[in-house]
Amino acid sequence: MNPQLNIDLHTHSTHSDGSLTPAELVAHAAAAGVQVLALTDHDSVAGLEDAQRSTQALGLRLVPGVEISASWRSQAVHVLGLWIDPCALQLRSMLDSQAERRRLRMRRMCGRLAKLGLPGGELLAAVEARPGVPTRAHLATALAEAGHVATAEGAFRKYLSAGRPAHVSEDWPAIDSVVGRILAAGGVAALAHPLRYRLSAGARRQLLAGFAAAGGTALEVVSGGSGAHQAESCAQLALRYGFLGSIGSDFHNPQVSWNPMGRLAKLPDCVMPVWRGHGL
Question: Which of 29, 34, 215, 243 is a Cys-bridge partner for 238, taking CB atoms 3.0 to 4.6 Å apart?
Answer without folding.
Answer: 243
